[in-house]
UniProtKB/TrEMBL annotation, chain A:
Alphabetical list of Pfam families matching this protein: MetW
Protein name as it appears in the record: Methionine biosynthesis protein MetW
SUPFAM superfamilies associated with the record: S-adenosyl-L-methionine-dependent methyltransferases (SSF53335)
Gene3D superfamilies noted in UniProt: Vaccinia Virus protein VP39 (3.40.50.150)
Organism: Bradyrhizobium shewense
From TrEMBL, chain B:
Enzyme class: transferase
Catalytic activity of the protein: L-homoserine + acetyl-CoA = O-acetyl-L-homoserine + CoA
GO biological process, one term: homoserine metabolic process
Source organism per UniProt: Bradyrhizobium shewense
Subcellular localization, as worded in the UniProt entry: Cytoplasm
Gene3D superfamilies: 1.10.1740.110, alpha/beta hydrolase (3.40.50.1820)
Main location: cytoplasm
Pfam families: Abhydrolase_1
Pathway this chain belongs to: Amino-acid biosynthesis; L-methionine biosynthesis via de novo pathway; O-acetyl-L-homoserine from L-homoserine: step 1/1
Function: Transfers an acetyl group from acetyl-CoA to L-homoserine, forming acetyl-L-homoserine.
Protein name: Homoserine O-acetyltransferase
InterPro entries: AB_hydrolase_1 (IPR000073), AB_hydrolase_fold (IPR029058), HAT_MetX-like (IPR008220)
Summary of subunit composition and partner proteins: Homodimer.
Amino acid sequence: MSVQEVLPLNGVATGSSGQFRADHLLVAEMVKPGSKVLDVGCGEGDLLQLLETRGIDGRGIELSREGVNRCVAKGLAVVQGDADTDLVNYPDDAFDYVILSQTLQATRQPRVVLENLLRIGRRAIVSFPNFGFWKMRLQLLVGGHMPRTENLPATWYDTANIHFCTIKDFVQLCDEINVKMERSVALDLYGRPVPLNLPWWVWNMFGEQAVFLLSRGGGK
Amino acid sequence: MQVAITRLIANEVDGQMGGVKSIPSPAISADERSHEVDHPSSQIAHFGAEQPLRLDCGVDLTPFQIAYQTYGELNADRSNAVLICHALTGDQHVANVHPVTGKPGWWETLVGPGRPIDPKHYFIICSNVIGGCMGSTGPASINPATGKVWGLDFPVITIPDMVRAQAMLVDRLGVDTLFAVVGGSMGGMQVLQWTAAYPGRVFSALAIACSTRHSAQNIAFHELGRQAVMADPDWHGGGYADHGIHPHRGLAVARMAAHITYLSDAALHRKFGRRMQDRELPTFSFDAEFQVESYLRYQGSSFVERFDANSYLYLTRAMDYFDIAADHGGVLAKAFAGIATRFCVVSFTSDWLFPTSESRALVHALNASSARVSFAEIETDRGHDAFLLDVPEFFDISRAFLQSAGKARGLTRDG
């Protein structure tokens, strides 16, 4: 399945000037009200708070102790844990959705993590920075150095992000492990969805980040 | 060996202790301690022959009594009751001056006006555990069958027995569902036992620095303490009451050993280092040469003034037996299957008695049971005792957890 077959969402608030991050609003739109959600790598709990305002039963896992403690201090159900090692402790079908927001690239085994997401949850929502974004390409092509952006300011030697990929790479992985892409949206530099009906290479070029709604593929 | 009360004040190793200060000679007699056993300065719930306490060892304990304190008012819905469970050597005086020692309540950092568990919002209950020595029936109580102190004739009790007795007290107080059950260490074990035994009666559970089972190392330390008590000739096979004495030397040694496990190397080093006590140079003797020795001796000698030696044996034994998974076919998650209780689990980085790994195992089981759980590990070098000390991050988390649970429970509050 290619990206252009997948419809982007309607009615998603655009821009990043509001209270919530653009990708969080997008993710929240994808979750049906009343469902049970696990946010893996939930940071300081911004997305979980957004979900709770929509009547969603949200839980979180976060690696950093500071992040966890801030979440718990906000009254969120968050545990300290590592996506790479702790997801195996969750039973099958424990959640309606498992969210991995801007975290996939920081895991040691993205493929195993992705498989676990769709074991624990009936659906997974994955967002990640697109390394095929034109600014990234330009920095490598012209600058000759590892790309750094506003959203990814760390240098190559101290970044937590060890497994960058492009939208094209991710789609290929989904095909490989028989994951169905129900919806996908690429966001441009300003957090706006890249317009509909553009060929996939445009998304891969102009999407600064991407959000995918995934489910288990059939016939596995 | 005479355990000397040295000139070092140290209620808490992490208190505002700037060095060496003199302490007043404690004026607490053995009589005052033993008076609290049968006639506590607390409310008492008596349970007669019609309400025996069915113990895990197979004995029906009757009659028995539970001594307890309450703070705040039960609301009209009876939905704001919070049960505080005390640790091994704690008691029901969680937020009031202790009747024997005259010290502030043992958890006034967490419980009290303006604290996360505020009597303005909650009806707070704290009872002395069964087997204790501050007014609830235990080995230091009078056995009505003989008219003499129970001693080792008292049946062996377990954490589930303690919780069963608490449930009877909570019934007596007219509370069906507790808004929260809160405790650290042995108190945390009781919290977990509450959720496993009475899941429908616990709306939220705050389990701090504890475990679902006592580790081999912890059992080993407890055995060390018990042997210290039993090695004291004044113990008299547990029958010291008949001789009008108390094995204070053995119990003090037990407390000293245990106290080390409540601290951490870093905390001891920070507070005492290798500093000497009231001297510049070694005296080449076995006096308390080092401040840390002096501190431990003080801890030991002050403990024996308020605690019964046999009670110490029974309560350490109860902790040793604790293993929730064993009661559920060896699968911890089964203990919490389908539970609706909201959990908050807290551990401390330098706690080596109940290390974070124990809390993590609990959290994994709760996750596997789809329970709603928060888990935070707090960075501190104060060891296991951190849960009793002034650790703001811990209070923030406790407050937020209870506030969020209160919202879900429909508790209205103005503060």
